[in-house]
Specification:
11 helices, elongated
């Protein structure tokens, strides 16, 4: 069911929501949160579809805020609010309100959104494009417990990571970080299988992809080793290679869907590592509403520090000390190596795990 309202108010929108619920026979409100999507007209359809698909897992009231640009000076001073209310089959498993703001009211979107928030329910604000540099200080962001941006949609993604680190507030997150959750889980599991020490890491992916930088910063922050960032033609992340004391470990995904996990001394394994769509990413973010400390630590590691760590020399294994000058080196060959083997063995090296293991959310 759809209800169109022209030149309306937030109070009339609330009445339309109640009217729509009664018309379809569901007067009760069964939503668990409010999802506010702040976007433009060009990206509104894709963002609304992703939010609607995510509502099948998280029934929510979705408020889509679209700020319309007025062409003439007279129109810019005139305020108007148009709304489209969707309930029932047209809104997935929740409720959807599309708000189009004209004129001065566009600068006060929070005053329109505030009366439409579900009482006693968490609020998540998502900017698919054109996110503010400091989401927590944005008037709409200040209403939310969780603020979701997407650095990949910016013009200079890698540079924006630095701005995100400077303005980070608990509750901020980025879909570029969400995209690498399967990679982090797989790499952590691979290191759990081998008793080794990681010496260096290489992260390979397409240029201007912030997910590659975030994965590299996470590895450098957790392992405290040099991490090299190399380029490929994509799509997205293509490989992670680790040099360890027990041989190389590699996770290679060339086609964007199926990856190969290679551990020295073990057979190669095929791993499903497909690129996920936006609806899956949003659904993952809505599963947790607490601050993501792992993301904050990786983000604050910094791109500049990552580049400096990649330039650091890789530590080499210690060479045996030469014998004193003048003393011959005697090598005793045992006729039966098994019989002459020492009775005590050196304890195997413990793995150097990711120091603060990330949750696979």
């Amino acid at each position: 069911m759809k209800i169109d309202l022209t030149d309306t108010t937030a109070g009339q929108v609330n009445k339309a929501l109640v009217q729509g619920r009664r018309a379809i026979g569901t007067p009760a409100v069964g939503m668990v949160l409010t999802l506010v999507i702040v976007t433009d007209e060009e990206n509104a359809y894709d963002a609304l579809k992703a939010g609607s698909d995510a509502s099948h897992e998280h029934p929510s009231r979705t408020l889509v805020v679209i700020k319309r640009v007025s062409r003439s000076p007279r129109d810019r001073t005139a305020s108007r609010l148009d709304a489209e209310v969707r309930v029932g089959a047209d809104a997935g498993t929740g409720e959807t309100v599309v708000l189009r703001l004209y004129g001065e009211v566009a600068d006060h979107a929070d005053s329109v959104v505030l009366p439409l928030l579900l009482p006693d329910a968490p609020v998540v604000v998502w900017w698919p494009v054109n996110a503010p540099l400091d989401p927590a200080k944005d008037p709409l962001g200040a209403l939310a417990q969780r603020r979701v941006t997407d650095t990949y949609a910016s013009e200079q993604p890698v540079r924006e990571l630095s701005a995100r680190a400077d303005a980070y507030t608990p509750g901020d997150t980025d879909l570029s970080w969400t995209r690498i959750t399967p990679w982090r889980s797989m790499l952590a599991a691979a290191l759990d299988q081998v008793a080794c020490e990681v010496r260096a890491v290489e992260v390979e992916g397409e240029e201007f992809n912030p997910s590659c930088e975030l994965l590299a910063m996470w590895l450098a922050d957790r392992l405290d080793v040099p991490v090299k960032r190399s380029l490929s033609s994509g799509p997205g992340l293509t490989a992670v290679r680790m040099q360890t004391t027990r041989g190389p470990i590699a996770l290679d995904r060339a086609d964007g869907s199926l990856a190969t996990l290679s551990i020295d001394g073990q057979p190669d394994r095929a791993v499903a590592l497909k690129r996920r769509d936006t609806a899956e990413l949003i659904a993952e973010e809505l599963r947790r509403l607490d601050p993501d400390d792992t993301y904050a630590s990786a983000l604050r590691f910094g791109v500049e520090r990552l580049n400096a760590s990649a330039a650091a020399p890789v530590p080499e294994p210690a060479a045996p000390e030469p014998s004193p000058k003048g003393e011959p080196v005697t090598v005793a060959a045992a006729p039966d190596a098994a019989a002459e083997a020492p009775t005590t063995e050196a304890a195997p090296q413990q793995p150097a795990p990711l120091k603060k293991r990330a949750k696979a959310t």
